[in-house]
Amino acid sequence: MVWLVWMLFGTQVLCSCIAAPAGQGAGAALLSPCCDDAAVEEAADLALRQINADREEGYVLSLYRVVSAREQPQEITGSVFYLILDVVDTECHVLSKKLWKDCNTRSAHSTVYGQCKAIIYINQARNIAHLNTYECTLQPAPRRYIWSVCPDCPVDDSPTKPEYLETAAGSLAKFNEESEETHYFSVLNVTRASMQWVIGPAYFVEFLIQETSCSKSDTVANISMCEPLLPEVAKIGFCKGSLVNNHVEQFVTTSCEIYSHQVPATEEENQEPGHTPGKFRQDQQASSSDANPFSPHLEKTVGWVKILPPSNEDITFHSLRESQNEHKDRKPVPPKAVGSAHRSDGEKTQVNKPDLTKTVTGPVILPFPEEPSLSDSCPGEAKQREGILHPLITRKPTAV
Question: Is 199 found in the same domain as 303?
Answer without folding.
Answer: no
